[in-house]
User: Which sequence fits this backbone?
């Protein structure tokens, strides 16, 4: 073979080799692109599932929060009603003491000297028979009612606080 033909043959093989490599590269590029598209689709599917789960969790938490707020609101209304009722009862008692409809009295210990004692009177109120009682001055009675009113309010507030904590920390 002459050198020109040999050069031409080598050049043809080189061109064929370059074309084969180019075709192989294109096929690999196409396969890699297909694989990347599949992975992107799977990734998007995973992201959709995660988003859906997160949205469901947020909705469940909002439902729990709303239910808790409703229970706390009902508890607050009950607390307010109890305070209002206690205030009304205390106001009525103060008015009755002020108008002398009701007199507060205390049982006296048995004192042989018998000073400052008022004899017990039987009545519809249910006085203990035979026990000696002393009536309180209306001003002192008003102070006692004010003290019991503060105590009642404190107990109602404590009960409301305990109910609030129980609602926030169920067992």
Assistant:
């Amino acid at each position: 073979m002459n050198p020109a033909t040999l050069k031409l043959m080598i050049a043809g093989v080189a061109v064929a080799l370059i074309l084969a490599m180019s075709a192989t590269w294109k096929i690999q590029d196409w396969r890699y692109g297909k694989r990347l598209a599949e992975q992107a689709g799977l990734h998007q599917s995973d992201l959709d599932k995660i988003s859906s789960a997160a949205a469901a969790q947020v909705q469940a938490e909002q439902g729990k929060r709303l239910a808790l707020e409703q229970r706390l609101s009902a508890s607050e209304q009950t607390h307010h009603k109890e305070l209002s009722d206690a205030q009304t009862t205390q106001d009525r008692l103060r008015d009755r003491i002020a108008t002398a409809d009701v007199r507060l009295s205390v049982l006296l210990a048995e004192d042989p000297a018998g000073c400052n004692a008022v004899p017990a009177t039987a009545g519809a109120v249910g006085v203990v028979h035979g026990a000696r009682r002393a009536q309180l001055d209306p001003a002192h009675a008003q102070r006692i009612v004010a003290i019991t009113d503060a105590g009642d309010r404190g107990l109602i507030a404590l009960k409301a606080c305990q109910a609030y904590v129980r609602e926030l920390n169920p067992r």
Remarks:
- The radius of gyration is 47 Å.
